[in-house]
Structures are given as structure tokens and as C-alpha cells.
Amino acid sequence: MKDILHPLCLAIAGTGFLILVRDLRRRRRDPALVALAFTYGFSALSYAVSLTPVWIRVDGFFGVPNIVVPIAQGFVIVVLALQATVLAHWSKPPAEARRRSCGLLVAAAGVIAAMAVLFASLTPASTRPTDFSLYYAHDPVFQAYVLLYFGVYSAAETYLAVSCWRNARTAADRSIAFSLRIVTVGAVITLGYSGIRIAAIIGAETGFSVSHLNGFAWACGDIGATLTQIGYLIPTVALRAAGVRDWATAHLRHRRLAPLWAALDQADPGITLRRPSGQGRDVLRGRSAHFPLLRRRVEIRQGQKLMRRYLDPAVRAEAEARRSAAGLAGAELAAAVTADQIRAALDRHAAGDPVEAPAEYADADLPLATTEDELRHLQRVAAHFTPPAPRGDRTAGRAAADTTDAGTAGSATPGARP
């Protein structure tokens, strides 16, 4: 059972450590984050050295049978202290949290030292990667070792379960409350692991055996610890997922505004202070589009101002009637009419035909109080906007129309011949 569940636990703990280490680059002074990152790091180490192939190699390297036991369990004691440290920094004032953290780490060091002394007093004769606890259950020194380790383990997991359940009831963020409840469930399940190990010591003295529960003990320990790790990681993953969603949304918005911006930029390149880099290249490099998106918003609005001289009142009236007949109303109607006005203004601009008494944009009176409101509105405008034909195509079209008009006029002249 151990070698089935430990690799999964190792993968989860290692992944959590790598995720949090990346955040530490920007938040090195956050003590809760540092403690949480090292919680996953030491947890991963405890699982790694406990794998049977690694266990055998470590024993061979040090030349001491089962030396992995105090190594792995020492890592676990550190993990328990760091978990309590995280809770202290989450729930206590900074000064009190620091004092409690120092006390917890000193206590952990004391427990590890006592475990090392007791283990050194044992005389293990053979490597026992799967049943070490049961094999030495009759040894009085090992009994003291087990009672020390699993007594501390049970007390720490009980404290973790009670604290997380209490904090979950007062947490304002639903994802944090959910994650703390998962940690609570995981901590309670791990008590099955410590309970069976303590029962093995009691049974060795009173005459009953729990050897048939050895696999269940490993399952309780690994499943409970995995739930605890997942619970601690949920807020970080949720925050990272929100960041990825914001990153993707900004790129998508930037892309959707491209046709509207390009048409205005082509009409007057002066609206663009800095030529944008290729968005595809930015996506591949993981760059954010938040600042380019804000710049694009400003440039589109500047382009609208420059096109103000070409707004034909008749175009607005016709667009309002047509769009209203199509069922649009409110902000959507204003966005659609504005899009039609911009297109017509671009055509007039290309022809050099300003309006003597220009109209207002249909969106001029919209209540766009925030940048987010304005970005949403421009997205609607861009969705209704149809770019005008390229300048060369418009010139060719006007030339063809002029030729046709001239031919028609010539054939209608008296005395003309085909």
C-alpha cells in the first residue's frame, strides 16, 4: 500500500512546492508563504525517502538499517511545525505569530533530537521498508520512540483539525473556507494512521495484534496527508487560476479590438504613440496584455475624436432607425450606432469630405464611470464594427463609378453616336 500511495503523495507535494517557490520570487518577505512552501518541500522529501527502492539505497549509503525511519519522520515533524506556523501567521498578529513560529520550530528540533537518541539506542538487524513499526513493536526503546513520535503527531493533527475547522467558520472567502474544511478532514483521517501505530505498541504488551491493519494505516496516513496538502494548495491554485483567466481575457479583448483600432490607425497613424509588438509573439512568451489593452483603449478613443469632424447626422439617424428595427436597445444600440458612425466617418475621411455641422457619437452620453466599463463598451462597438474596404479598393471603385457616369452622360447627349 505504501509504494502505491507514496508516489501520488510525492507528486502532489512536489507540485505544490514548485508552484509556491515560483511565488516566493516575488513575495520572499511573506512568512506564511515561506512556511507553506517548505511544508510541501519537506513533505515531498518524507515521501521520497520512504519509497522502498530509495529506502534500501539510503540504508546502504549510511550503512545503518532503517535509518530512513528517523529521517522521514523527522521531515514529518518539521512539516507539522510548519503547518502550525502557517496557521499562526494566518490568524495571529505578526509579532505573536513570529513568537509562536519560533517556539514551534524549537519544539520540533527538540522532538527530532529525542527521536534520534532513541533510534540510536535500537539495534535494528535488517532493513524493513514496509513493516518496521510492527517488527520492533516489542522493543521497549522502540515503544518509547513510537509513543514520542506518534504522540506528537496525533497532538499536532488534532490541533490542525480543530484550528482549521474553527477558522473555516469565520473565513469570508468561500474558497478558503472550503480548503480549510478539506484540511480538517485530512487531519482527522491521519489520526487513523497514528492510532493504529500506537495500538500496535499497546497490543504488543497486552496480547493483541493489529498487523492486519498495516495497509489501512498507510492508507490513512497517505490519504489524510494528501487531503491536507490539497486543502492548503486550493487558495494558491484558485489565485493562480484567476490570474491565468485575467491574462487570457486581456489578450482576447486586445485581439477583439484589433479591427477597430487598425481602421482608425490606418486613417491617422498619429493616434499610436508606440507600434505594438505581435500579439502572437507576446502570447508565446507569456507576456501580459493589460498595458497594451489600456493603450489600445486610449488610442481608439483618440481616433474617435479625430473622426469627429466627419460624423454625418444623417448617418446617425439612419443607423439608429435600422439598429432599433433589428431589436437593439440601450447600451447595445449605442455601441452599434457608434460602430456605424465610425465606419462612415472613415469613408468621409478618406474622401477628404468633412461635415459642416457634425453629429455627436451615439455613445457620448453613456455612463462609463470606470476603465472596465469603457473596455466592455468598446468590445461591443468592435463587435458591431465592419472595417471599410482598403483605400486602394475604394479609389478603384470611385474611378470605375466615374467612368460609368461619364459613359452614361455621353450616350444621353443629343447627336452622340455609339
TrEMBL record:
Top-level lineage group: Bacteria
Residue ranges occupied by any DUF6545 domain in the UniProt entry: 247-386
Comp. bias intervals (Low complexity): 397-418
Region called Disordered, residue ranges: 383-418
InterPro entries membership: DUF6545, MAB_1171c-like
Assigned keywords, A-Z: Membrane, Transmembrane, Transmembrane helix
Membrane-crossing residue ranges in chain numbering: 5-21, 33-55, 67-90, 102-122, 142-162, 182-204
This protein's record includes keyword Transmembrane helix: yes
Protein name: MAB_1171c family putative transporter
Source organism: Streptomyces toxytricini (Actinomyces toxytricini)
